[in-house]
Specification:
By secondary structure, the protein is of the alpha/beta class. It is 56% helix and 10% strand. It folds into 4 domains: 72 residues; 117 residues, no CATH class; 34 residues, no CATH class; 167 residues, 3-Layer(aba) Sandwich (Rossmann fold), CATH 3.40.50. The protein is built from 18 helices and 8 strands. It has a 6-stranded mixed sheet, with helices on both faces. The radius of gyration is 32 Å and the shape is flat. It starts with a helix and ends with a helix.
Length: 461
């Protein structure tokens, strides 16, 4: 595949756009047809064969413009419409306009000075592009690496020879030497500025998305209780992305055909007009239940932050989990479904915490309220998710009602934000509830939440 296109595919993948080998081949074929001469045609052609969704389209738009702007700057001699006709100069080739190393250090310093003082932006841009390719600047992943690549590029262009001449000139300690030293310093500064701008372009194409991906991974693995306000904003986007991923994974037809088993009775009936000869086979199918989830959330104290993300997760899965009941409690249990339906999510969560978060936490009373007013929402199709630390302030935990709820439901999943070593300590009732749970998990991060919800949805597959 042509080198510029290969780098562009790499930039898309780095930005998080899944480009398969088949799509890369299709892009190569499209490029062979349209070429680089018309940038708009090139953009439209590559978009057709590479962007598969609205999210991909947005990424493509961003990466294409940034990438080909940088390529155009590396090929400034070409016309505005056709300046990307050729790939970025290869590492091994250097023309007479680039800074070429001389036979000795003096020659390198002269070439560096000549390039810096030329004032020819096109010539400098080509030299920078070649130096960047030579030192592997496409590998930049973090902004903190910029200084390293700037220095390596300058060394590739001969700055060490110039710095040696600068040191020798400063040792002369004359007025003329000071004048010559100042010229050398200005040349180095100008080239540093140009190299820094070029590295910034490379970072925007190859590094910025990688940095964002790294930060996303850090945040999803950080305990929810330790998230900063800045992390919280990032998490909203990540939760939506996780929910979309789960929705795609679990959105399959409601009837699954088992091609390994024939439905004999239906096959004979279907072939009754053929003297019972089974020309048309009827395969057994298994009906899949739609996910039905009842979420019971402790919104007291620091647990409320975990509840926020669980409900946000379930809220984002509304197309997949169409049957969702949500309850919140501290002292008394409340149905928070209407609040979530009427208000935007942030306003709804603030209202829920205010209305249901006051008072001394009482798991037993919450179970009594659920039994009295909402027991009918739990049936053999229901997965009950309890999110809380199980600390009930020495009140009766009503294990009898919890056991009955476990018996009525399909599955009972408890997500606890406290680590297992603290279960059963102080006023924790976790070890009393544990025998009746289908699954009891330590859930401290967004990644834990995604894994737990994925397992719940998988039980309906």
């Amino acid at each position: 595949m042509e080198r510029t296109l290969t780098r562009f595919v790499r930039a898309l993948r780095t930005a998080g756009m899944p480009v398969s080998s088949a799509e890369a081949i299709d892009a190569s074929r499209a490029l062979a047809l349209v070429g680089y001469s018309d940038r708009d045609v090139l953009k439209a052609s590559l978009r057709i064969v590479m962007a598969k969704s609205e999210e991909d389209d947005a990424l493509f738009e961003q990466v294409f413009d940034t990438f080909f702007d940088s390529v155009a700057q590396a090929n400034p001699a070409q016309s505005t419409d056709a300046r990307t006709d050729q790939p970025e100069p290869a590492d091994e080739g250097r023309d007479s306009d680039a800074a070429q190393p001389g036979p000795d250090g003096a020659g390198q310093a002269d070439d560096f000075m000549q390039l810096a003082r030329s004032g020819d932006e096109n010539r400098i841009a080509v030299a920078m592009a070649r130096a960047a390719s030579a030192v592997g600047a496409d590998e930049i992943r973090f902004a903190s690496q910029s200084a390293f690549f700037v220095r390596k590029m300058l060394e590739e262009l001969g700055v060490e020879a110039l710095e040696a001449r600068l040191a020798a000139t400063l040792d002369e300690r004359t007025a003329d030497a000071r004048r010559r030293a100042q010229a050398l310093i200005e040349a180095r500064t100008a080239m540093q500025r140009a190299a820094r701008a070029h590295v910034e372009q490379r970072f925007q194409v190859f590094g910025k998305a990688a940095t964002e991906t790294f930060m996303d991974e850090v945040v999803t693995q950080r305990e929810i209780g330790e998230l900063s306000q800045r992390d919280m904003e990032r998490m909203k986007v990540l939760i939506a992305r996780m929910a979309k991923r789960l929705a795609v994974r679990h959105s399959r037809p409601r009837r699954v055909r088992n091609r390994g088993k024939i439905d004999v009775r239906r096959t004979l009936r279907a072939n009754a007009g053929l003297d019972g000869v089974p020309f048309d086979l009827v395969w057994k199918t298994k009906k899949r239940d739609r996910p039905k989830i009842v979420a019971i959330c402790d919104v007291s104290g620091s647990v409320a932050q975990y509840v926020r993300f669980l409900l946000l997760f379930l809220h984002a899965l509304s197309e997949t989990v169409t049957d969702l009941e949500a309850f919140a409690f501290s002292a008394r249990l409340s149905d928070v479904g209407p609040t979530l339906a009427k208000l935007d999510f942030e306003s709804a969560m603030n209202r829920i915490v205010i209305d249901a978060g006051g008072g001394s936490t009482d798991y037993g009373q919450a179970l009594v309220d659920l039994n009295t007013d909402h027991w009918q929402v739990i049936d053999r199709r229901t997965t009950v998710i309890v999110l809380g630390d199980g600390r009930s302030n020495q009140s009766d935990p009503r294990i009898d009602l919890f056991a009955e709820m476990a018996d009525r439901s399909r599955r009972l999943v408890w997500l606890c934000p406290e680590p297992p070593r603290r279960w059963g300590t102080g006023d924790s009732c976790m070890l009393q509830y544990e025998p009746f749970c289908s699954q009891l998990s330590y859930c401290a991060t967004a990644a834990d939440l995604e894994r737990a919800v994925d397992e719940v949805l998988s039980s309906y597959d």
